[in-house]
Amino acid sequence: MKKTNRTALVAATVAAGLMAGASTASSAAAQCGRASWYALHSRTASGERMNPAALTAAHRSLPFGTKLRVTNKNNGRSVIVRINDRGPFIRGRVLDLSRGAASQLGFIGSGHTAVCMARV
User: Fold this and answer.
1) Of 16, 24, 41, 85, whose CB neighbour count within 10 A is largest?
2) Cut 0.90: pTM above it
3) DSSP 49
């Protein structure tokens, strides 16, 4: 194989791999599902005291300190929260939000809602 053809093939392969990685990374970063809220005064899994008024959330696997934009699919409101706890522990839910975040999203009364979240 000629050197120019080999270089072009390698470049095309690398570009295709980067594009495939970008599409899976973006789909992994954005997730939709059900969210609920909680307001305790105990310690979180990260070791800090739970502040119900803060804009924080619990997620099963995202690293502590990760910031997410959470959007309520029912009314379009969004808020940026910081992951500081583990959960939710209820099947079918992807996020537990602090009372403050739930209030800004407008679902305190219902207790849970459909949301989409993406890393910021």
Assistant:
1) 85
2) no
3) B
